[in-house]
Amino acid sequence: MSESPDESSKWEITLTVNGKRVTVQAYAMERLLDVVRNDLGLKGTKEGCGEGECGSCSVLMDGVLVNSCLIPVLQAKDSTIITIEGVQADGRAPVVQQAFLEYGGAQCGICTPGMILAACHLLQKKPQPTIEEIREGLSGNLCRCTGYLQIIEAVKEAARRGAAT
Amino acid sequence: MIGVKDERIVGTAVPRLEGREKITGQARYVDDMVLPGMLYGATVRSRIPRGKIKKITFGPEINWQEFVIVSAKDIPGKNCVALIEDDQPCLADEFINHPEEPILLLAHEDRHLLPKAVEAVSVEYHPLSAIFTMEESESRSEIIWGANNTFKTILIDKGDVQGVWEKAHYIVEGEYRTGAQEQLYIENNGMIAAFEPQQGLTVWGSLQCPYYVHKALMELCGLPPGRVRVVQMETGGAFGGKEEYPSMIAAHAALLALKSGRPVKIIYDRMEDMAATTKRHPSRTRHRTAVSKDGKILGGTIEFTIDGGAYATLSSVVLSRGAIHAGGPYYWPNVRINAKAVATNAPPHGAFRGFGAPQSIFALERHMDRIAQVVELSPIEIRRRNFLKPGQTTTTGQAVSEPIDLGRLLDRALELSNYSAKKDEFARQNQNGNCKRGIGIASFLHGAGFTGAGERYLSSVVEVEACEDGGVRVLVSSAEFGQGTKTILCQIAAEALGLRYEDVRFAQPDTQEVPNSGPTVASRTAMVVGKLVQSAAIGIRQTLRASGLLGESYSAEEFRIACRKYVAAHGKLRSLARYEQPEDIVWNEEKYRGSAYAAFSWAVYIAAVTVDLTTYSVSVDDFVALQEVGRVLHPVLAKGQIIGGVAQAIGFALYERVVWDNGRMQNAQMTNYIMPTSADLPPIRVYFEEMGNVHGAFGAKGIGELPMDGPAPAIVSAVGDALRTFFNSIPLLPEDIFDAIAGKGENAEHAGSARGNP
Ligand code: FES
Ligand code: FES
Description:
A: Ubiquitin-like (UB roll); 5-stranded mixed β-sheet; B: Aldehyde Oxidoreductase, domain 4
């Protein structure tokens, strides 16, 4: 790879991604999103805007939902990252995913990985959220296809089925 | 109801065919694909709206040796994006006609180097004066396109409009406007192209219409059909926004691939996608209507004008759908509709869910409210008195052949929304306090399939294949981009053959493999393509029976065995079905008379809103969407289409404003072009009536675009009801409401003037 025009040298950065410790060579200001997608080949994390507005690049970083397009990879050094590819390890994810499937939570699917991570994160904090809490909890993740209601129903149903336990 | 009573698969909520890949992050979109040796491409675009290119210089700070550079001179075939007219260049050679017009292409293996390189190219221009509004275009102070700045005019003339004015008890006039709207699919546009001397050119991309791209690439590269291959990747939303522009991006990627001999990927970032690609056409509609004493429409004139931007692209067809829908679901004994699409120096406007109908229906529905006020009838009563009835004719003279009862649809919507109780309650509550509540209605229709003779020209073909393993495969160029194309077409094939849903697969749309089932647009997939899949599937069964491998009745297992045996003995079994226009569909393109659509979907939507007079913000509190769309093939997907469409239309009405500066979108970011979030939307209550339709598979009609048409007028009507002010344009943002109330807005100017005949 050629040199980045504004950062002269690459750093060696170690982080734990989906339970595996990995070390990447990356420019300090490179976006976590690009490292995850290009260096680690985890293509389930999507770019919708690159400006922190849409949430399709959502990953869990040390248990917190973040927009990976806004995180310089240096900041993710030594952190624990979970992407959509690793979310199954979390017991609540398959229940959430199944509910998305049944309730029409995914249409074009581009927002879906981020939306599922956001839903899992919400249910971890609030096992039995109200509709209002779901609406608020997912409001950082934009979806242009569904109008959200079937996503909200899916999350509600996942909670009912005990995704949080 | 039409259709088989004992349907097992159609009408049930089978799992979305590609759902599992989507929920696990395994679905592959174009940006997820990487080819060995691939370069990344970027586009140098014009900074000015109109002018002549004088000189292009390449800044010294870049090592240009490392870059592949393509200009118009490198185009092997014709420098145009072939569609309807060949007026739009793929790369500007001499003249610039809008901001963001592509001029040069660059490619490099490190995508991080591209933005700087694009910056380092400077283009000098001789600027020419540009025009930005429909009025400037009409005044012809500058001629920027053709002889008179007009892409297309349409005249629909029914009865004798001249004669109605003197019979009128009231004459009601009004002017209504709608703004540009960005499709805002969450996956930006993108393409990969590769050229291999043996195979020819292949592109993979995010797109709706594989064969549109195919045609454009053939003309651009001067290649025969067999040497161009277009593959649709999983597509992250489209809404019309990936109907025509992908041909441009594919062309760019192809030119870079041809020149470099390496695969090239072009992925737009959000800002480029918003600023450079198509949006919904802005519109202006003028109504003048003659109304009888008891509120019946006697006739009227409708002038419908849309801003097409700098090139013709699809404007003529958008105009056509808009013009045909301008009379709505009402009976016009006499009407003259003058429609035109005009040129301005903005990037071309294009396809967006609804395709002209949301614009003309917004105007008409506001105007119906206006008429109601003048005649002193309720918005409900004015609609009821003018609804089309079976046997009556639409504005194009098409007799309503479906047994639709709009009065009953209206009653049901009123009941579901608790309309009259709310109306009283709001009137009481609004006497005090800073929050005003209101309720509004829209009734409308949407034609399914291509307009007029369009389906006959398309002459779509689908194939169904019996496979070696005994399964069945559907082969179409109809694309999945969220609507559920794959799922419903597989349901139809399974139902037609008496198989299980799991026995049917869907071939990836790839022009090398699938026939041309037409573009994935115009709410045509369920009705037109679905019907063809049904016939092709039946063809498979007939062949198996004729060859003695299948009995009169059979189990799924017996069918599998028969397929396997057939393929082993005779090779591939594919059954083809081609569209044939039903005889009762006759259309005169010259006169704009006849059957504009094989079927219409019908709807009544009711919105309840609260306007907060401290912030001037509007919240939609309740939304009832009641529609008749024929047979609902999949209840969850159908409901998802309606909710998603209503949500987009709420954005169209209340949130989404494109801010223009000399033809360029100023707010080309998600931070300042605001679409609704999950916190903004009301409960959207969706109800279906099913009437059936002879033209579609198992009675299905169109569904995808309908929900885009009605919400904006219903919501604006509700806001007007809350504030006792008449609004005539969208988007209607808090600042517009503030201005209207402060008495300085144009939006609430007394939209209509009315005259009562003595
Ligand atoms: S891509 Fe990161 S928030 Fe949109
Ligand atoms: S499903 Fe398409 S953006 Fe959410």
